[in-house]
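Weekly modeling sync, notes
Attendees: S.R. (lead), two postdocs, one rotation student

Agenda item 3: backlog of single-chain predictions. S.R. asked that every request posted to the team notebook include the full sequence so nobody has to chase files. The rotation student volunteered to paste the first one in as an example of the format we agreed on. Action items at the bottom.

Example entry:
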Amino acid sequence: MSAEIEVELRGRLDQEQYDTLLTLLRERGEFKEHKHRLLLDYSTFLPGEGVANRTRDIRLRITNGVPEIITKLGSWGGDEHRREISIMAEAGSFDRLVETYGVLGYTKAIVAERFTEVFDYCGFEFALVTVPNHSYYVEIEQMAHSSEDMVRVKEEIRTVCTELGIILFDDKGFHSYIEELNRDSNGVFDFANFEPDYFAKRYTI
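Predicted structure, as returned to the notebook:
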C-alpha cells in the first residue's frame, strides 16, 4: 500500500456543536491555518462516477490563493481511505487550469466555496468547515502507511470523536449530505459559459 493514504472521517455539526468544538480546539489544540477554498468537482458529472458510486475525485481547487490539480483514488464516503495525487500550480493560474480542463473534455463541475479552521488535536488534524449560508461539518484525518495502520487510525479517530460527542457520517448519510449541498448550496460551472478570468471576476481568489 502507498505511504500516502489519507484516512478521513467526517461528521455534520450544528451551530452550537461547531462553536463548542471550535472553543475546545482553540483552548486545547494547536491552530494550523485558516483556509478559504474554491473547488471544482468534475466527478459528479462523469459517467459512472457521480456522488455515491465514484472511485475517482477529479478536481481543481484554489486554497488561500494557491491553485491545485488534485485527484483522489478510492471510494468516497463518511469513512474513507484514499490515495491523493496533488500538483500545485503557480498563483494566478486557476482560470487557465479551468480552461485547460475544458479543452481536455472536463466541461461541467460542481462549484463549492468553503471556509475552514484547521487544528492539530490528539495527534489528528481537525478541520472545522463552514459552508456559507448553509451548514458546518468537521473532517478528522491522519495519514496511514499500511492496512493495519489504517485500521488503527480509524479506531483512534472514532474513539476521540466519541469523547467529543461528534456523530460521524456513515456512507449513506455523507452521500445524502453532499446531494443536499449540491442542491441547496453549491453551484454548477459549465465550460460553455467560460470567459477570460471567469473565476477571478466572481470570487476573491
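Discussion: group reviewed the output briefly. The helical segments are 15-28, 94-103, 147-164, 171-184, 198-202.
Action items: rotation student to repeat for the remaining queue; S.R. to check formatting next week.
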